[in-house]
Write a structure and sequence with these properties.
- The termini are far apart.
- The strands form two sheets. The chain has a five-stranded parallel sheet with strand order 3-2-1-4-5, with helices on both faces. The protein has a two-stranded antiparallel ribbon with strand order 6-7.
- Helix content is 46%, strand content 14%.
- It is of the alpha/beta class.
- Strand 6 and strand 7 form a beta hairpin.
- The chain folds into two domains: 16-115, Rossmann fold (3-Layer(aba) Sandwich), CATH 3.40.50; 152-212, no CATH class.
């Protein structure tokens, strides 16, 4: 059993990423890569119709031939997702030798990372990892959380981000407790009604007031 993973969120915007394989597993890796802004290349002699369609739309690059070691050149990330375990192991071994993060899907000894199941609400992303033990469990947990977490959480993140940018422009960022106290039923009611302006104003008032009070207390004689 592998040790617990160190959780990170990779920034792949405009970075070249390679997917080796053209079947269902490889296809399933593409949407998350494209959503992250990665420049994706797929290498496989045969590909599913959807992969061919993505290539025709110029959303990915497609090299419809067997994998070659030169395909690794310049890649930031490699996912080996073919139906051939020996090929997947070779891809990862060669990628590691080149200093590239790599993963052979569902083949733990050849994984430098594990993809997480993700619940998204706007820019809010909740990642679920089973340390490679059970993708099915991760999917079940994602479906459960997806049904329970309201869209307003993503809206609240957007509000917090806007308020943080405004406050940071004028001074230090307030302590966590001021942000926590700004999450009220009034704010959620406004977000649920689509009134982001009111929600932002209420959060700003509470956070800024708390920060001002803390500053006054710090300088009091």
């Amino acid at each position: 059993m592998p040790p617990p993973c160190y959780p990170i969120a990779l920034v792949l915007d405009d970075k070249p990423c390679l997917v080796v394989g053209g079947g269902e597993v490889a296809d399933g890796k593409l949407d998350a890569l494209l959503l992250s802004g990665a420049r994706v290349t797929v290498v496989s002699p045969e590909v599913r119709p959807r992969i061919a369609a993505l290539a025709a739309e110029e959303r990915i690059a497609l090299r419809q031939r067997p994998y070659e070691r030169g395909d690794l050149a310049g890649m930031a990330l490699v996912i080996a997702a073919s139906d051939d375990n020996a090929l997947n192991a070779r891809v990862v071994t060669e990628a590691r030798a080149a200093g590239i993060l790599a993963q052979a899907v569902d083949y733990i000894p050849y994984c430098d990372f594990f993809a997480v199941a993700v619940v998204r609400r706007g820019e809010l992303q909740l990642g679920i990892s089973t340390n490679g033990r059970s993708p099915a469990f991760a999917r079940w947990m994602r479906e459960r959380l997806d049904a329970e977490i309201p869209p307003a959480y993503g809206d609240l993140l957007a509000v917090f981000g806007d308020v943080r940018d405004t406050i940071r422009a004028r001074g230090p960022i307030p302590a966590y407790e001021h942000w926590r106290e700004a999450i009220t039923d009034e704010v959620f009611d406004a977000l649920s009604a689509g009134d982001r302006e009111t929600a932002t104003a209420r959060v700003f008032e509470r956070v800024a007031a708390g920060a001002d009070a803390a500053s006054e207390s710090a300088v009091a004689p």
